Amino acid sequence: MKFFIFWAVAVCLFGVWVVDGFLEMNEEEIFYTEANASYYIESKAYNPNNALLVGLTLIKSAAAKGAVCLDGTLPGYHWHRGYGSGANSWLIQLEGGGWCNSVRACVYRKTTRRGSSNYMEKQLAFTGILSNKAVENPDFFNWNRVKLRYCDGASFTGDSEHKAAKLQFRGQRIWSAAMEDLMSKGMRYANQALLSGCSAGGLASILHCDEFRNFFPRKTRVKCLSDAGLFLDAVDVSGRRTLRNLYGGVVGLQGVQNNLPRICINHLDPTSCFFPQNVIGNVKTPLFILNAAYDSWQIQSSLAPPSADPAGYWSNCRKDHSKCSASQIQFLQGFRNQMLNAIKGFSRSRQNGLFINSCFAHCQSERQDTWFADNSPVLGNKPIALAVGDWYFDRSGEKAIDCPYPCDSSCHNLVFR
């Protein structure tokens, strides 16, 4: 009885995600966007299992370079040093957290940890791909592992300002200042490096992949991983393009155009070049795409946001896939097909990797239960951590694509309250 009372209190105080029938404590991150005048909620599972806590380091040299958060404060990162065989190996994880596409949205954002280091946690739990335990993270546990905090609102690509609103859009400068700082702290001697990122950070890992490669000598093994970063230029349930409208605002407001891949800008408009489907085919550095075929964030915020569904027909379905009608599932199968079409050319390259599972999930590399645990999601009996490791170290080629929903019983599907 005490156990159930505890969880009842926890639900009231913190909110929960139901993951395959299990309640998990979570921390909610709420991002305001004017794309649909509502709140987007992206949650990170809390790992109570003695997770490593790593302190925040502010980049002191960033101010002189104008590399500051939306509110002008210093950017920062969390770094746990590598040791033993991983002493000269580096993993950079780019934090996610949506975007801001208007002055109003960015002014709101600068009063949160996504726009100001004043509000950032002084310590973060390192789990999943950042874990320091071999049993939780077999290939990268003893590397130098860095989580670069996200406080610009344009996937580390903007470079402009709005003086009247006292907003600094300096994502590109933050990226450059962080890399320069880490290079001075030993990353320049890396014999192997992996640039990773989740959600908006997963998009950033694609956009910055070749730039990251160029920081190192050719002899250094350098690859990139994008987790839940394959945002599609998809038609929403109303026939409009919610995410394209959002991205158009981000690109125009934050001066993103000059920092997008030239090969894309030369033949497409800047907003199109912020969509990874138009960029991945030209990334020269080996790239691994990890994505749920039914990405939870895209369903809630791009495909069926409230603005595209004023009658609320999709309200239950977008929160819980088990409540979707047959026609709604058919619509979502169309989204999966669009994702598979977007990666066709990318998948032909031997150097690239894929793990596309038919789950209703978002960001599977940072959560321990989805990255590497006894009941982690698998494709071909291989969990995500081993698939990424086998690809990175060239132990085997990894291009795994799941059959359509509902065939995968290993998913940790997300259900939103």
TrEMBL record:
Its EC number is 3.1.1.-. Keywords: Cell wall, Cell wall biogenesis/degradation, Hydrolase, Secreted, Signal. It is an enzyme of class 3 (hydrolase). GO terms for cellular component: plant-type cell wall. GO terms for biological process: cell wall organization. Pfam families: PAE (PF03283). It is found in: Secreted, Cell wall. GO terms for molecular function: pectin acetylesterase activity. It comes from the Eukaryota. This is Pectin acetylesterase. The lineage of its organism: Eukaryota, Viridiplantae, Streptophyta, Embryophyta, Tracheophyta.
